[in-house]
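Methods — Computational structure assignment.
A single polypeptide chain was analysed. Its primary sequence is given first, followed by the predicted tertiary structure written as structure tokens.
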Amino acid sequence: MFYDAHIHNRNAEKGGFLVGLENEPYFEGTLSNDDVLKMQNENYIAFYYVTCQEITKKLPYKFLKFHPRRERYNKNQVLNSIGINLPKCVMVDTLNEPYWTAYDYWEIAKAYPKIYFIFSHAGGYLINDFIKICHFQDNVWIDFSLTHTVLGHLGNIDKELVYINQAIKYALNASFKNKILLGSDFPFFSQEDVYKYYDKLGVVKLLNNNFEKLKEIIK
């Protein structure tokens, strides 16, 4: 039994953070904003995906997802949108090189210290910068979705980018280990494989506790 903090559709988890997906391209098996909002309950929190058309609007949602690479908005637009909406929790996709740096994300989190942030994917190739941010910025949580699968190959020694898995193992034993979440990015990647990766590391209980703690804080 496990929670999944980064999913675009329900699967085998017992609860999680459901993330809507809007605009083009459309991916089969993913849920829209309307879909995830309807599915929100005591086990699932729905994160509303903010499109480029909505970046300046006041939105009636407590949980927002920003995807700078897909929507092509800039840091200041995201800063302003968060200021307008003051959500309880913000999820931000961190794979936006070369247009955003790790310190752009850190600036956003520092600007709103009372809002909780989840920096999804923990920066990909920039993973070391994002575990540093998680360490020093109290309101920042991270998941390693996509990064541990595509770059780290879930610890496959014949394919892995070694420092990715080294950074994940370090983070899971560091002083900020209680701010790390299990995220699979299902259905883009195998949720079962991600679960097995963390189970082999012996940290599923830790990650479950982390999810429950954050969900209780922000609900």
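Note: The longest helix spans residues 204-218.
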